[in-house]
Write a structure and sequence with these properties.
Blueprint (H helix, E strand, L loop, with lengths): L8 H7 L11 H16 L9 H10 L7 H7 L3 H13 L3 H4 L1
Helix pairs in contact: 1-5, 2-3
Length: 99
């Protein structure tokens, strides 16, 4: 099993807590997100279900570019570690899981 060390894990924990927010968007945005959910679930061969929240989260996180990371880290200590932990949890698949 592969282990990944994140040295800023202590700083990341408070920033990786989940929090519910309410956002008002136009209907076409809601429908586009729903379509993306359907599209993601249609092509899934791993039986992982993508939901509305997953798509919204990915859309928001993709706005954070590596170029902005130093600025965000300077304003929000622990941001880089939190982002790394989030990315690993969202995308990392160990060799054992891939079989």
């Amino acid at each position: 099993m592969t282990e990944v060390s994140v040295f800023g894990t202590a700083l990341a924990k408070p920033l990786n807590r989940r929090r519910r927010i309410t956002v008002e968007v136009p209907e076409f945005v809601v429908r586009a997100i729903k379509y993306r959910v359907e599209e993601a679930n249609q092509d899934d061969s791993n039986n992982e279900v993508v939901d509305f929240n997953d798509v919204v989260e990915w859309l928001l996180v993709t706005e954070v570019t590596f170029r902005r990371m130093p600025l965000l880290e300077a304003q929000i200590p622990g941001f880089t570690a939190a982002m790394f932990v989030w990315m690993m949890n969202a995308t990392y698949q160990s060799p054992e899981e891939g079989d």
